[in-house]
Design a protein that fits this description.
Number of strands: 0
Helix content: 55-70%
Distance between the termini: 13 Å
Strand content: under 5%
Structural class: mainly alpha
Number of helices: 4
Order of helices and strands: HHHH
Shape: globular
Largest sheet: none
Number of domains: 1
Radius of gyration: 10 Å
């Protein structure tokens, strides 16, 4: 999200960055809105996320 912004962050892009299949991402976040909610929840909980380098 930090690197590509909310509109540029796709499930496929997240999967590519994580080195996993899109299906794994879809299992946890079925669509982009759910993905945003997961990122927001992790950020507010202080859960570490891999930062853009």
């Amino acid at each position: 999200m930090a690197r590509y912004g909310p509109d540029g962050t796709t499930l496929q892009r997240v999967a590519d960055e994580a080195g996993t299949a899109r299906g794994h991402i879809c299992h946890h976040a079925g669509n982009r809105e759910e993905l945003r909610e997961l990122f927001a929840s992790a950020s507010s909980a202080g859960t570490p996320t891999r930062s853009a380098s």
